[in-house]
Amino acid sequence: MELVIENVSKSYKQNKALSGFTLTMTPGIYALLGPNGSGKSTLMNIITDNIKADGGKIKFDGKDISKMGREYLKLLGYMPQYPGIYPQFSAEEYLYYMAALKGVKDPEKQIDGVLEEVELLDVRRKKTAYFSGGMKQRLALAQAVLGDPKILVLDEPTAGMDPKQRIAIRNYISKISFDKIVIIATHVVSDIEYIARDVVMLKKGVIVDNAPPDELTEKISGKVFRVNTAQKDVTEYQRKFKVTNISKEDSGGVYLRILSDKAPAEDAIAVSPTLEDYYLHVFGESTV
Ligand SMILES: Nc1ncnc2c1ncn2[C@@H]1O[C@H](COP(=O)(O)OP(=O)(O)OP(=O)(O)O)[C@@H](O)[C@H]1O
Ligand SMILES: [Mg+2]
Fold first, then answer.
1. What is the CATH number of the domain that holds 58?
2. Stretch 45-54: mean pLDDT, rounded?
3. pLDDT of 285
4. What is the whole-number distance in angstroms between the Cα of residue 156 and the centre of ligand 2?
5. Residue 157: pLDDT band by 50, 70, 90 thresholds?
6. How many whole angstroms separate alpha carbon 123 and alpha carbon 174?
7. How are strands ordered across the β-sheet holding 15-25?
8. CA 2, CA 151: separation in Å to the nearest integer?
9. What is the total count of domains within the chain?
């Protein structure tokens, strides 16, 4: 199974949201990382055929998706960034409704299992109007996975979830990803650090990096340091270096995590880089 994205571009008036995006995907998880406005949702809307690209082609197993019609839509599961969920429906009614729209066969065989996976089985008869933000997100994920789609497109799936749910959802996505092409846009680097086969970094609609997480962190190996300093010196370090984390130490001092080509202080200790360090290396300035 293969999804080939070839030279896809999209502009909104003068604003280039996506330029010459080219990528071939096979089963596994692809993480799309990039700052606000970098084109993640635009790409997802094009892959799910919700908006048309200005140029380029997308092929699924050699077939142009624009010529596949319903055959392509049946392969898709999509969780939009801002899912609209009808407030008058219960969780269960909403899933039956979405299953009907998607043409899912035997929805009654799937719905309870999916609701259980997203931890909503016990509230399945409750109106979604009374759901919390995190519950609505989990319901939106549930509708995306109905019908066992071969291409699963998730736009910031864990937004608004608490850490326990976030981990449960991450594991669930990982568990169902083996025979699917899963594309996840996120700002939460830790959501995908251990489950993505490839991380695609987008900057102003252009791919700036595309590699497995460990290859990306390897690029800044030896460039992440921990420095123990006094509180009064923190601002000076921030002025001179990319400080990615500031934490208080028990004795009253401060630990700084710093990205730098050379040791930022004599007693700086080199530490293992994380994907978040790499993200900040590519996109970030010092944090506050
Ligand atoms: N419907 C639209 N009309 C006009 N401009 C748009 C529209 N949708 C997106 N854009 C612009 O296209 C660019 C890419 O937006 P997009 O929503 O794809 O980014 P994103 O990476 O998903 O951002 P975020 O992290 O905030 O969700 C931005 O400059 C945005 O302002
Ligand atoms: Mg977006």
1. 3.40.50.300
2. 96
3. 57
4. 7
5. very high
6. 24
7. 15-25, 3-12, 55-60, 63-64
8. 10
9. 2
CA distance 152 to 135: 20
Instruction: Say whether 181 sits in a helix, a strand or coil.
Output: strand
Residue 90 DSSP class: B
Structure tokens at 30: 């692809």
Asked, for residue 288, whether it belongs to a domain, the answer is no
Task: Compute the distance between CA of residue 144 and CA of residue 223 in angstroms, rounded to an integer.
Answer: 40
Q: Among 10, 15, 153, 184, which residue has the most ligand 1 atoms within 8 Å of its CB, making it the best to mutate?
A: 15
Nearest CA to ligand 1 atom 8: 42
**Structural domain of 279:** 221-283
Q: Pocket of ligand 1, candidates 36, 184, 203: which has the most ligand atoms within 8 Å of its Cβ, to mutate?
A: 36
Distance 130 CA to ligand 1 centre (A): 30
Q: How many residues does the chain have?
A: 288
pTM of the model as a whole: 0.93
In one-letter notation, the amino acid at residue 14 is Q
